[in-house]
Amino acid sequence: MMRSLLQISKHGKRSIMTSATLNSRVNLKDTLKLPNTTFPIRSSLTPASAKELLEKCTDDLYKWQWENLPKDKTFVFHDGPPFANGALHTGHAMNKILKDIIVRYNIKLGKRVSYIPGWDCHGLPIELKALQNIRGTTGDVSALSPAEAIEKNKDLHATEIRGLARKLAAETVEAQKEGFRSWGVIGDWENAYRTMDLEYEVRQLRVFKEMIKKGLIYRHFKPVYWSPSSRTALAEAELEYNETHNSKAATIKFPLANLGSYLSSLPNIDNTISAAIWTTTPWSIPGNLAILVNPDLKYVVVNSPKHGKLLAGEERVEHLQKLLDEELEVIVKDIPGKALLDATYNHPLFPPTAPPHPILAADYVTSDTGTGLVHCAPGHGMEDYLTCQKHNIQPFSPIDDSGNYTSDALPTYDLTGLSVLSAGQDKILSLLSDHNVLLGCQPKFQHKYPYDWRTKLPIIQRATPQWFAGVEMIKGPALSEIEKIEFIPEAGQHRLHAYVSGRDEWCISRQRTWGVPIPALYEVESGEALLSEESVEHIISVIEKKGTDAWWSDPDSEEWVAPQYRDKKYKRGTETMDVWFDSGTSWTLIREKLGEREGRALVDIYLEGSDQHRGWFQSSLLTSVASTGKAPYEKVVTHGFVLDEKGKKMSKSLGNIISPQEIIDGSYWQRAGQMAKVAQKPEKAKKQKAEKKPKAVAESSQPAKKEQSPDIDTLRLWVAMTDFTADGTIGEKVLRFAQEALRKYRMTGRFLLGNLGDWDGKEVPYDELLNIDKYALYRLAELSQSSKAEYETLAFSKIFHSTNVFNKVFLSAFYLNILKDRLYVDDGISRASAQTTLFYILKHYLDILSPIVPLLTEEIWSHSTPAITQNMDQPVKGKWAEPPAEWSSDAAKELGRKFQSFDSCVEAVNLAVEDARTAKSLRANLEADIILVVPEGGEAQKFLKEIESELSAILLCSKVHISTSQPTNLDEGAWSYSKPFNLLLEEGTAIAVPAKGSKCPRCWMYTSRSEVEACERCAGVVERLGNCTATA
């Protein structure tokens, strides 16, 4: 350690003396300018003080910017509403924190930001959870599955269900709101929107009315995705596909009733031919109304010893032989598919008196699977429906809301009430076998199959009367609008384009209670629907007074019928709108609050998960184009899903769920430690127990002393460091990395504040700065400019990487390290230049980091001296600081080029000194002088001469000598170590040799005449302090 006292020499040598008394002692440590700051190494914020600081950089910030930033520079960020039906998870954190970073950055650009958070409060997920929460009076508190909850409460009145769902949604909104705010997410929380609020519902209904006016809403009886477990129609966006679903695949023969002209003209052909069809939905056989063939495929008639003559695809004969386990004799081949289109067949389970059914052409029939002929049930598949519509064949679907057969299903047999996906299907297969028409059945045919996204159970396709929005009529304008929108990542444009172009209509009706009612009236006598513009406007006026609950609470009131229609008796429909229509009209909130923007879309950015291309992005686009003719947004940003560190989806069964709250309150680290302890080998665990080592949580997960401060910024930094355009991961390693980066940010902030503790606020002009400081500002300008460019493109992970590298590699490992001598020991322009540079680094450091880790930057700000705060705006409020042009001028770039080349020299010196340390020739770098040998007259020599006065500080040695030749006057027997380097494309050598002078007791450099007196530099500094004078 440095000697704190320097005794006056009794031998007449140069020494330090007080101005008052000779032969006294001076405490040299007191003459050093050591760091001084109240900013702690580890956050000392209590939950209460953290909350206070959080309010300053969230609620106070949002209010301030809304009231003070210019209205004509408003940035509109529209929040896609999350479902109000569960606890917050890391997917929520990814979503909301990404939005918050963008909002904060735009405030730093001087824009007034509109960000109104919202919640999607209607729909099946919330209704199901409300029903599952109902507990009976028997004391049974066992959890019900969604399907069980629906069945158990099927007689509950709609108003009761709506009340329960509303209460659940309201409670969830408040809980989630508290969570979002605790993450440092700013927004207009006091005016947050909920899709269940009356004013929202009215705006939604007005969009619906506008679409009615344009003829875009209609009612059809056609197949839709139907969930027997939820008892409602579903949209494509509400499906999940199970890749390992097992169906019963059946091959069935249908006897031909009329062979048609082509087959009848062939010799040796009689009327005992049967068409062999293949299906993975045997339950749909009661709805069979046609057989489909591909007109361009070839077909054959084969003879089966067991099953007679069969008609099949020519390329499927081998498959049929394997299925039947017998040799098949080909009787007729090369039959064109189109030649079969005048043939007919009889349904094997219909009465003999039933009329025959046709064989129809369909180009989606292939020879890849099955028999080349397909069973066609227009009531159970959209392709079948469209094919049959061309022939005026109406759909037939004898299945009820629960997925059970009705009495119309094969009335000759007793199928009523049997589930089509279980007992009913088994009954069908049994009947087919009894009639000797079942050629084969594969009981477990694995394939991709749609499931209800909420109940996780299989769905069916079922023809029912539903309300549809005609997408086909607005598809062209919608696709044109997509071309104008910016997408991040760019692939999002193709995805949204594909979803819209592949959709002709949108089933918007749902057979559930919790939602916005479809304002349709039905004439009691005829059942005909009334959904006119006038009727809907009248119903909206009633809803504005009474609310949507009244649609169910007073069913007999004539008030709902517009006066001009009261000559007939009507009843109200019970269907509700698809929740995607609910959230898809949320743009109306922005239009109402902020108005239209001339020549621009209502909203700057929509940002949600990648699954929203088929959900909210699409529904918002369609409703807006249908209503206004243009897209509601200018930019669409999507993020991936959050997986665990092994790339697995998070689930309770895997035990890999991490909640944002446990990261913030620190409980995650305890749990991670416990998991690490469980994973230890038994003998290791036993040994640790015997040695009474600290708990595993302290060893492997968290420092032994738990930090009490809320760890909000680790959560936020994890989001920023993740490339959100792909699926991200979270776990102990990832969070450790974020924590370590945050710790280094904090340590750098502490160094900056500590060494600016006595700064007087006077900035040294750029031209007077030392060269190394100019170089630091050049590097800082590069970081600031690249960070701004990356904020603009939302490349937050690149900002994290570049700031992390700048912090660790340039600042901590190099620049801040070489400044210590100038900051602690020096005075005058050398120290002032360093402090000015540190101030600029602090200013831009906080500027870059504040959108990502606002709590840390505000904490640093709160510990800053008046000299700092008077020269710098509050980080969260301050406008983005553009680096002065001189920092990036041609001269600065040239200096940067030279210093970057100088890295080779620094590395060579470090290696040479390390060799000396390894050989025990020295213990500390300052025990060495450095000789830099470079070619005479070259650019390298010129540059070294320019920075000669700064070299000893940069190279962390006592003295540096520049030479153009290898030294020959080294002391005999003295050690030396050399390493080559390349400076500005010129070869050089760095030689470490013993320092010539004695160790200065103040600065520790070996530049003093003796160990008991200060070096010339330190003597001058002390003398200028006014406390001591240097005398001989």
From TrEMBL:
GO molecular function: aminoacyl-tRNA deacylase activity; ATP binding; isoleucine-tRNA ligase activity; tRNA binding
EC top class named in words: ligase
Localization (cell): Mitochondrion
Primary site of residence: mitochondrion
InterPro entries, alphabetized: aa-tRNA-synth_Ia, Anticodon_Ile_BEm, Ile-tRNA-ligase, Ile-tRNA-ligase_type1, Ile-tRNA_ligase, M/V/L/I-tRNA-synth_anticd-bd, Rossmann-like_a/b/a_fold, tRNAsynth_Ia_anticodon-bd
Region (Disordered), start-end ranges: 678-709
Keywords linked to the UniProt accession: Aminoacyl-tRNA synthetase, ATP-binding, Ligase, Nucleotide-binding, Protein biosynthesis
GO BP field: isoleucyl-tRNA aminoacylation; mitochondrial translation
Residues in the signal sequence: none
Keyword Iron: no
Catalytic activity: tRNA(Ile) + L-isoleucine + ATP = L-isoleucyl-tRNA(Ile) + AMP + diphosphate
Aminoacyl-tRNA synthetase class Ia domain: residues covered: 59-727
Presence of keyword Chaperone: no
Methionyl/Valyl/Leucyl/Isoleucyl-tRNA synthetase anticodon-binding domain sequence ranges: 773-931
GO cellular component: a single term: mitochondrion
Entry's EC annotation: 6.1.1.5
UniProt cross-references to PANTHER family, sorted A to Z: ISOLEUCINE--TRNA LIGASE, MITOCHONDRIAL (PTHR42765:SF1), SOLEUCYL-TRNA SYNTHETASE (PTHR42765)
Family label: Belongs to the class-I aminoacyl-tRNA synthetase family.
Protein name: Isoleucine--tRNA ligase, mitochondrial
Species name: Orbilia javanica
Name of the gene this protein is made from: ISM1
